[in-house]
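Form 7-S
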Amino acid sequence: MILPIVGYGHPVLRQETEEIAEDYPTKELIKNMFETMYNASGVGLAAPQVALAIRVFIVDGSPFADMEDITKEESKELESFKKVFINPIILEEKGEEWAFEEGCLSIPGVNADVIRKETVVIEYYDENWVLKEETYSGLAARIIQHEYDHIEGVLFPDLVSPLKKKFLSKKLTKISNGKIDPAYKMKFSKRVR
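Output:
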């Protein structure tokens, strides 16, 4: 089932998220989240984006596998980079900082360069509740960091320069007020036409 994606300004996007227990009905949620993400042409989706203040996010980096300027190795990794992260904890962010233009399904039509560390070490449960600790670099790490920010109540405009944020403020206000017509199902905290 395709779920509505909550738009910038919705309180759940800033809410503190909670860990879930193994008896939480994750199978249906994960299926719905993937369907919702693919419908919106995304590469990641966090539970707060579908109005659930829980520590779950999904990723599928395969759309980035054909990008120019990436190595064959990274392309191959992204091709099969489809994962579920339950109760994740980033243990370490390391390496060089690099900028990349990010967007967000909760903030349609807004993109900005965000600086992040190149490598991330993360501990999480997969969809079968197997505990894992893995290291990712490049675009895979960036996708994880972006989605992880969602479960921490952080959105990518929070990470841009004050000048860039001021430049984006009118667009963000329009989204917050629901004055947009996205190409996918969305829910806004206010709908002003």
